[in-house]
Structure formats: C-alpha cells, structure tokens
Amino acid sequence: MQRDPAARSKIEVILCYSGYHALVLHRFANAAWRRNYFLLGRFISNFSRFITGIEIHPGATIGRRFFIDHGMGVVLGETSEVGDDVTLYQGVTLGGTSLETGKRHPTLGNGVIVGSGAQILGPIIISDSSRVGANAVVLEDVPTGATVVGIPAKIVMGRDKSLDDEFCAYGTPTEGLPDPIARSFESLRNQLNFLGEKIIQLEGEVAENKRLLDSNVDVKRPKDRKAL
Prior knowledge:
The chain is α/β, with parallel strands linked by helices and 228 residues long. The protein is built from four helices and 15 strands. Helices cover 35% and strands 15% of the residues.
C-alpha cells in the first residue's frame, strides 16, 4: 500500500496482486523446503509460477515487507537472500553463474530497489539502500546507498542523504542522475579540444623556429662571391 499508488485497498492487493500471491506461496514452499520436503516445496513453487508468472525457488531466503511490483518474469535462484523492505520490478533476475553447489546467487540488503529487467548475477552483495537501474547487468558488489546502471553496471551516483526517505521507482532518481554515456562523450570532447590546442601551439613553435633558423642562415650567408 505504501509503495504502489495504484493500490486502492488491502482487499484489492490480496485478490489481485501477483507479487503478494507469489510471496504467500513462497512462505509455504520455503517452510516445506527447510523441513526437507524438497519435492513438496518445488511443487508449490512451480504452482506459484504457473499462476503468477513469478519464479521463486523454495530455497531462497526473503525478509519482511518484500514487494514485487507487476512481477511477470521475476526469477529468484535457490541461494538468493533478500533483506527487509526490498522492492523488485518485473523481469528482474537474481541468477547464478556457477554450476557448483553452495552460495551462487546474489544477496540483497535492506531497502534495495531493483528496476525492471535488471540482471543481478553471481554470489555478489547489493548493500543496504542501493538502487539498480532498469535493464542493468550487475556483476560486482554494490556499496551502500549507491545507484548503478548500464551493462555491465557502473556506479553513477553515491549515497544522497536527500533521497534516504524518498522511494525511487524502478531504482532511478527522477532528477540529478548523470548520464554515463554523455559524460564519456564530454570527456572525449575535452581531450580532443586539448589535443587540438596543443597541436596549434606546437605548429606555431615550429613555424617560429623555422623563421629564426632561416634568418640566421641569411645573416651568415655571403652577399656575393667577391666577399670570398
């Protein structure tokens, strides 16, 4: 109710929100999984995916007040760990990059927001209050309060205390977010301007040296053959 202005009543959430349905069913699947009823846990998880379009492995650990908005296509792997007050949008994947057993999926801290289509891969840590932009591919740890975007994801904004109490939909602040591509082009343009100015300066120095050399040669050169 706090994070989706489209939700008009609690009964609407209970009856119509697939993210809520997936979370409730995951609680049952996870309870069965922790008691070694693995087949039952997988069956409940598969049933949940069938009716919600959200796949949460029964072995995943999920904290309190977990919110999946829209939800279609969300995938959480077996060893994923999700903290409290985390928000995921549609198409998010918490995936593994190894075939080895053990921890191979991401860990999300408290208050993390992950935008639609983002892929967080491997046993990495997305620290508290971090934000992952839409369609980002995250392959490395994200520090506390950082905002990451791009493929592969890079930090574009550090912790902004003015945003601590502000909910950023899709993990992207509406104002003040720098464009890493534009910033790269600006850096290249500055370098080209500097190099251009340097070339003009060097050409001027070469022309001046040539002029001085020619004048020195003219001074030393005899005026006529009789002087010899």
